[in-house]
Amino acid sequence: KDDENVNSQPFMRWRDRFLFVAEAIFKSQAETGEIKGHYFNATAGTCEEMMKRAACARELGVPIIMHDYLTGGFTANTSLAHYCRDNGLLLHIHRAMHAVIDRQKNHGMHFRVLAKALRLSGGDHIHAGTVVGKLEGERDVTLGFVDLLRDDYIEKDRSRGIYFTQDWVSLPGVLPVASGGIHVWHMPALTEIFGDDSVLQFGGGTLGHPWGNAPGAVANRVALEACVQARNEGRDLARVGNEVIREAAKWSPDLAAACEIWKEIKFEYETIDTL
């Protein structure tokens, strides 16, 4: 993905970036026979410029773009969401700037409210915290975000911060994204917590592999498929998750190397997203 802070700075103009990355996407598709994507950041200083970048991505034939919905604003985001829907593009939503609003204990708005506003505005998936990793939040509170984003009907549950029953009727859902400081050892917990209808983004957890980007991607994919298979077999990932990863690492050198590099990585601080 593009970084949320990357739009069109002098060292990386947007059109050059779009062209170079699109070439890499098509090359990887030809080599693997699978659909690949990259979140092209269309966020810009004006709505007109934003739509121009979205149109360029569509003309290149790429499947997905992204938008910083809080810095861009809700009206701009809704316009972009409608454009993407009409033109067959997926829209990834980044929550850049949310911490200024939702991490203030004395004022501001909780991310639960910002997430619901995004669902009303439009988008296909949005960062929602990880429970584990760098963007950690309380498990129950984060699951409250997840349910409010993707379910049609959510029962009142104060333990998860849902203070009244929410009926979305026919409004489309939004997939939650777990991203930030996650790596292969987090895969069992992520599989258990977020389930199938979610997006797991491993940035440093891929690029930080000692053998390079492609082995990093292989390691993450092997770990994910091993965890999904174990879950489908009825195994308790909360209890045997590390064992599942170790078993898979025996026949995947890429995963074994990733397990070794990430085994001592921990983020130690108090939970951020709370009631």
TrEMBL record:
SUPFAM superfamilies named in the record: RuBisCo, C-terminal domain (SSF51649)
Pfam families registered for this protein in UniProt: RuBisCO_large
Annotated GO MF terms: magnesium ion binding; ribulose-bisphosphate carboxylase activity
UniProt keywords, alphabetically: Chloroplast, Plastid
Domain Ribulose bisphosphate carboxylase large subunit C-terminal: 1-262
Domain of life of the source: Eukaryota
Known function: RuBisCO catalyzes two reactions: the carboxylation of D-ribulose 1,5-bisphosphate, the primary event in carbon dioxide fixation, as well as the oxidative fragmentation of the pentose substrate in the photorespiration process. Both reactions occur simultaneously and in competition at the same active site.
Subunit structure: Heterohexadecamer of 8 large chains and 8 small chains; disulfide-linked. The disulfide link is formed within the large subunit homodimers.
Identification of the protein by name: Ribulose-1,5-bisphosphate carboxylase/oxygenase large subunit
